[in-house]
Design brief:
Oligomer: heterodimer
Strand content of chain B: 25-35%
Helix content of chain A: over 70%
Structural class of chain A: mainly alpha
Radius of gyration of chain A: 21 Å
Low-confidence stretches of chain A: none
Number of domains of chain A: 1
Number of strands of chain A: 0
Order of helices and strands of chain A: HHHHHHHHHHHH
Structural class of chain B: alpha/beta
Largest sheet of chain A: none
Low-confidence stretches of chain B: none
CATH topology of the largest domain in chain B: Rossmann fold
CATH architecture of the largest domain in chain B: 3-Layer(aba) Sandwich
Largest sheet of chain B: 6 strands, mixed
Helix content of chain B: 40-55%
Shape of chain A: elongated
Strand order of the largest sheet of chain B: 6-7-8-3-9-10
Distance between the termini of chain A: 26 Å
Number of strands of chain B: 14
Number of helices of chain B: 12
Chain lengths: 263, 330
Amino acid sequence: MRAIWCIFKKEIFQFFSAPASYGIIAVFLAVSGFFFYNITSYFAMQCIQAIQYQSSYNIPLPPMNVNQWVVRPFFHNLAILVIFLIPIITMRSYAAERNYGTSELLLTSPIRTAHLVYAKLASGFIIFIALIVLTFLFQIIIDIFTPSGLDWGPVWSGYLGLLLLGLAAIPVGQFISSLTKNQIVAAFMTFAVLLILWIVDWSTLFSSGILSKIVGYIGLSKHFSNFARGIIDTSDAIYFASVFVLSVFLTHQSVQSWRWRGA
Amino acid sequence: MIKAENVEKYYGKFKALDGITFEAERGEILGLLGPNGAGKTTTMRILTTYLPPSGGKLSVDGKDVVKDAIEVRKRIGYMPENPPLYVDMRVEKFLKFVGELRGLSGKKLKERLGYVREVCQIEEVWHNFISQLSKGYRQRVGLASALISDPPVIILDEPTIGLDPKQIRYTRELIKNLGGTHTVLLSTHILPEAEMTCDRVAIIDRGKIIAIGTPSELAEKIRKVNAVRVELSGPPNEVYKALLDLDGVSQVIPQERNGVYLVQFEPQWKTREQITKLAAEQNWHILELSPREASLEEVFLEIVAEEEHKKTDDETQIQKNIQRDDTVGE
């Protein structure tokens, strides 16, 4: 426990003491702000059109739902951003240790490999959560400027979805980082793997059968979109949890294997 | 304290360690001496549990490096050849991190930080970023990180590399002071360093320990050919001839100054007595007569050459003679 806390502190310190990290935070907020602006402008335009339609044809339309028009697409955009963000957060976790030789310090210290892995995971999550929490600002803005207010249920489930997405994707990124000494390679490979997981179920759109069912289950996006819609399904949670467990296990094995590979 | 029995290590098909056996007592300073690529670093990495051995047994304080890895790591402070440092940290922060990682906290941690700060001479750079430090300072911070938890066993891989002469001397002094209370294992390819700092030296070549003993014991081993430096007041030519005529003398080598000779002879002949007698008979004055001890460098070359000789016999015998001539003729 002491070792986990000690390495966790070090990781957090290293992230927040690097000027580049603030650049990442700034870019993340700028891009998510841009998405938010686009989505809300589009929503406003649709509202005006609906009013015009209603007044010229005198047909009453159902009220526009802000959750459906803004919150849901915004979560989808955030999820795509997260797929870009996570490789940047996780790329250095193990690759840098090996590149600078500090892996030798960690592996000859009286700590268990598992504790090292847990500490890295925990710090990855905390950094991820710190970034995601910042986007809550946008939800507050939309709540203030919507006359009927926001339906908060789907917002919470959307954040739960993002959290689970991070829970699954961060170990994937850290595992890939443990395979190489090159941070750029780690980031690129993580991004490729996450992107493939995100789009893989598109291929099942026009097919059926057992294979397409399996591929459909592997896809990240379907499991995430349920959360964005406000549906909390245990099978989705189980999916994220299995990706988490598998990647953590692989990371542990990979770090162990540094020893006989002579990292 | 450290016990290695027949340790082997393969990197793929390459045999890096070929049955290494040695022991280091509590409080002893043991030097691993050998050319680059001999297996010094590999031995240390296995001892620190960084690499698993391919065969054989290794234990520290009775704890096996494979089965009791964590216990072994608790007892060892290790400085690799390129000290592993977080360059984005300040020196103080880094050493604090290593201390906490090794289980120190509170007052004890503060006390040890103060100790390594003073003893490793890093007060000046205490608040600097490690990325800004020179090689010498990085080396010292690395040494500090190995000492911070006050482990009973200290393993130093080429501890004086990259230091300036003054620092080298200071570091050797420091290592010497660690002996007695700590078991120190250090590797070096600098012979005088091993001679000066170590209680015992193990010579490693191509994954094998080819000799082990105190520096003087090792020197003793090759003192088959003994030598004395002589200066007599007689005419140089006559002196040269007379020296060569003595019983058991194999070679007389003129030295840097005219009239000074290095006389090599078989050890069983009492050559010094003969020289005194000769001087008395010829009525020459003895200006200098000093036995010349083999340095560790000669021991090293001799032993390595002997090993080679075992393999390829006659051909290397010639080389050995050449080598001997070179080293003695210095």
